[in-house]
């Protein structure tokens, strides 16, 4: 994976195609190729420093490929396709492929690293203070920003006075010349570290309590902000039985490679496991696990309704306004049009938050204006109506613009001819104008549907999925699949990356199938009308 | 009179109703931005006081100016670059015949149905490595985010542009070739000026889309000074939504300014471009 990640530098230097003709053309080409070479050298240094040879190889091959492509006269289509394609591969295809691969694993909180890391985590977590533990003087430091940087424990050994830096990766002794230690044994300055003062440290006291520095046979943990002790691990890995053994009770948990966890004979699982492939388990869970599949099916149905209602509603509204203003007799049309598209110019993320507050039960404008006392986001039905209404407001100006343009593109002779043939305005609209409009706008309607199907902002910034049923805090009444996925991956109740990735794949399949089918149908429609 | 009503009057009626629906949230935002108390609970539907206090607080008390600059930079650069990358590819797809052309077009259509943000976990892990190797394009850097957004440059826009390129008669580039123009000269000198409308439209859509992008930016930009408008302003009302509401609305109005300016600048192309693209889509 590292190799692929490092390929990232290449698009940074994606060149523009050869130049503007005359003498300027070759000059621009040479300048751009020089830029590519310069960027490649810039990108190569960190790779060499990190000894990331596969990454360096990818970089070299990519740079050589670009030189071959743009210096010579051949492969003209590729010259135009490669710049965009490079970005597409690195920042779109690679993450998608990685997501797809994740969907077949149990990657989640507790199943992040390999087995070795799980064993270290289990041992470190089981550390308890025993009589006679070594006590250290502790200074909390960081190599980054005092408020957010990764924490390091600077501990002074009481016997040898040696100062060591402890991180979750282990303990390393610092050279005596780099640190200043006061009389009490505490570090007061250390080269390369920022020491946290009392206020900064207490602001992060929770992280400090959670940090355990693994040592052979146990771990160093903090006690308060200025002392640390080395505790003994209550559980240890036994390579003979490939199990974890509790040193006091003697209970054992045996490694199970299928689920990536240590499991006891009575079925109890240790929380810290490792990452393994689980085949289709994440997908079957969507269908067969009743705690998941029921709410999931409900979310899917609501998601379809939401996408259809948003797309259809905005189209009908926009078309209605466009038709109303599509007459030279209406005075002030230009002014109407400018004002109608104003919502489109407002930043939608901010307006979604404004709408959220307009629906606020206590101070919201809607309740104030109509003298209501409705808890809009409290009931499933009212919350759903509210989010669709917001979507209508945001989306219809665009449809209005598009429909206006499409109406203007239809030759007026057509509706004139139908009028002369005796058609009523309604008939001429239904039989002549609408079919022509639909041919022009169906591709846009399909992409609008695909967009709304995954309209993360529309839900996350307004209801955030609320209201939630009492028994299921993960899946609310207005949740779309995409906000549900986001909660699975980044929500408070533990990250379930593998399962979230499986839902992403599922979303992709649904959107792809619906869009493909409707594109097929449009093509047939176009053949009929043209 | 009745004739007027049935022919023209109803049109005004529909338009006025639509205007009320369109404008009342905007009037509310203006009212909140001018409201001297600056809280949600004290804001009325129409402005009751006029004070620029919220704007002053926003500019002096928060990093709004930085966010604004970041957003304009990120959205502007990625809109221009993505339109350019897309136009290059559309030119190849429209004017050249090569192996894999059909497959390439279909693949683009399929890939863009998997939105980039669905892969947010993979993107996060990927950029953790990038930040270690090249901090200049890593987390909290505008350039890193721009590169990431360019991953979605080829997609539905390429189709839209290809359709537009197809409407430009081939005889034009053929005669240029006869006069000795290279393929690059044909592209830059002949075709790009002719497809300006669709460039303007896709550019505007890309600009608006990037200004409003929240999910990826929220994961990507955590330093206060590096945030974009969407991430920064979300932070304003995430904690204290009642008290900061006036400031938030002032920010909303200011955020609309670049969009309106870009819109005005590109306006003469917009309506033509939208439909021309749509017809060919």
Structural write-up:
The complex is a heterodimer of chains A (530) and B (281). Chain A has four domains: 2-102, no CATH class; 114-126 and 234-279, Roll (MalF N-terminal region-like), CATH 3.10.650; 130-233, no CATH class; 288-529, MetI-like (MetI-like fold, Orthogonal Bundle), CATH 1.10.3720.10. With 530 residues, chain A is an alpha+beta fold. Chain A is built from 20 helices and 15 strands. The longest helix of chain B has 36 residues, at 245-280. Chain B is globular and about 70 Å long. Mean pLDDT of chain B is 85; it is low at 275-281. The interface between A and B is large, with 107 and 102 residues.
SS summary, helix count of chain B: 13
Total number of strands of chain A:
15
CATH topology name of the largest domain in chain A, in short, is: MetI-like fold
CATH topology name of the largest domain in chain B, in short, is MetI-like fold
By secondary-structure content and strand pairing, the structural class of chain B works out as mainly alpha
In the predicted model, the low-confidence regions of chain A spanning at least 5 consecutive residues are: 1-21
Domain count of chain B:
2
Largest sheet of chain B: none
Level of helix content of chain A?
55-70%
Rg over CA atoms of chain A = 32 Å
């Amino acid at each position: 994976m590292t190799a692929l990640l490092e390929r990232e530098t290449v698009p940074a230097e994606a060149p523009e195609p050869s130049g503007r003709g005359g003498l300027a053309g070759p000059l621009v080409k040479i300048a751009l190729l020089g830029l590519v070479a310069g960027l490649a050298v810039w990108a190569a240094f960190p790779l060499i420093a990190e000894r990331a040879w596969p990454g360096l190889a990818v970089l070299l091959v990519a740079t050589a490929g670009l030189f071959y492509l743009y210096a010579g006269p051949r492969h003209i289509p590729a010259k135009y396709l490669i710049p965009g394609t490079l970005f597409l591969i690195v920042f779109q295809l690679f993450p998608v492929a990685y997501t797809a691969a994740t969907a077949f694993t149990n990657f989640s909180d507790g199943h992040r690293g390999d087995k070795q890391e799980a064993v270290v985590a289990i041992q470190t977590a089981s550390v308890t203070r025993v009589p006679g533990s070594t006590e250290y003087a502790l200074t909390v430091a960081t190599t980054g920003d005092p408020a957010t940087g990764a924490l390091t424990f600077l501990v002074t050994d009481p016997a040898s006075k040696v100062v060591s830096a402890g991180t979750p990766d282990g303990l390393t002794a610092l050279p005596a010349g780099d640190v200043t230690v006061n009389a009490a044994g505490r570090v007061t300055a250390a080269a390369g570290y920022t020491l946290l003062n009392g206020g900064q440290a207490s602001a992060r006291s929770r992280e400090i309590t959670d940090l355990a520095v693994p040592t052979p046979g146990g771990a160093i943990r903090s006690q308060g902000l200025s002392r640390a002790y080395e505790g003994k691990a209550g559980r240890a890995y036994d390579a003979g039985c490939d199990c974890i053994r509790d040193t006091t009770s003697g209970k054992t948990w045996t490694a199970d490679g299928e689920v990536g966890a240590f499991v006891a004979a009575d079925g109890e699982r240790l929380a810290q496991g490792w990452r393994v492939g689980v085949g289709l388990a994440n997908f079957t869970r969507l269908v067969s696990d009743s705690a998941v599949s029921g709410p999931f099916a409900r979310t899917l149905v609501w998601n379809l309704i939401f996408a259809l209602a948003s797309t259809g509603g905005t189209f009908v509204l926009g078309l209605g306004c466009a038709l109303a203003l599509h007459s030279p007799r209406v005075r002030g049309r230009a002014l109407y049009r400018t004002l109608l598209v104003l919502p489109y110019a407002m930043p939608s993320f901010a307006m979604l938050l404004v709408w959220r507050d307009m629906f606020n039960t206590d101070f919201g404008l809607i309740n104030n204006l109509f003298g209501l006392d409705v808890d809009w986001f409290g009931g499933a039905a009212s919350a759903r109506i509210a989010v669709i209404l917001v979507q209508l407001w945001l989306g219809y100006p665009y449809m209005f613009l598009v429909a206006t343009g499409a109406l203007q593109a239809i030759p007026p002779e057509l509706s004139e001819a139908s009028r002369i043939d005796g058609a009523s305005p309604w008939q001429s609209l239904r039989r002549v104008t609408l079919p022509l409009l639909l041919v022009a706008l169906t591709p846009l309607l399909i992409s609008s549907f695909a967009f709304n199907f995954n309209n993360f902002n529309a839900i996350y910034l307004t209801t955030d999925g609320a209201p939630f049923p009492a028994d299921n805090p993960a899946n609310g009444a207005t949740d779309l699949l995409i906000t549900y996925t986001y909660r699975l991956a980044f929500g408070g109740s533990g990250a379930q990356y593998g399962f979230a990735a499986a839902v992403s794949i599922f979303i992709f399949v649904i959107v792809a199938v619906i869009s493909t089918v409707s594109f097929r149908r449009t093509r047939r429609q176009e053949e009929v009308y043209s | 009179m009745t004739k007027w009503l049935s022919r023209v009057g109803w049109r005004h009626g529909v338009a006025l109703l639509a205007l009320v629906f369109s404008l009342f949230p905007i009037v509310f935002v203006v009212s909140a931005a001018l409201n001297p108390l600056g809280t949600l609970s004290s804001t009325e539907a129409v402005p009751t006081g006029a004070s620029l206090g919220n704007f002053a607080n926003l500019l002096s008390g928060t990093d709004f100016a930085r966010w604004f600059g970041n957003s304009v930079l990120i959205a502007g650069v990625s809109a221009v670059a993505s339109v350019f990358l897309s136009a290059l590819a559309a030119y190849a797809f429209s004017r050249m015949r090569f192996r894999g052309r059909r497959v390439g077009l279909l693949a683009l259509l399929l890939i863009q149905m998997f939105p980039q943000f669905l892969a947010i976990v993979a993107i996060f892990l990927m950029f953790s490595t990038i930040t270690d190797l090249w901090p200049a394009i890593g987390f909290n850097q505008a350039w890193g985010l721009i590169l990431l957004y360019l991953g979605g440059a080829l997609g539905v826009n390429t189709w839209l542009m290809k359709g537009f390129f197809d409407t430009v008669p081939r005889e034009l580039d053929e005669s240029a070739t006869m006069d000795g123009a290279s393929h690059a000269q044909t592209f830059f000198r002949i075709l790009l000026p002719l497809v300006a409308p669709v460039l303007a439209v896709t550019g505007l859509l890309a600009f608006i889309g990037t200004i409003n992008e929240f999910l990826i930016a929220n994961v990507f930009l955590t330093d206060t000074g590096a945030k974009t408008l969407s991430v920064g302003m979300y932070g304003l009302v995430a904690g204290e939504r009642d008290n900061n509401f006036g400031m938030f609305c002032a920010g909303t109005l200011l955020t609309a300014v670049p969009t309106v300016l870009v819109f005005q600048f590109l306006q003469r192309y917009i309506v033509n471009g939208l439909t021309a693209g749509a017809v060919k889509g």
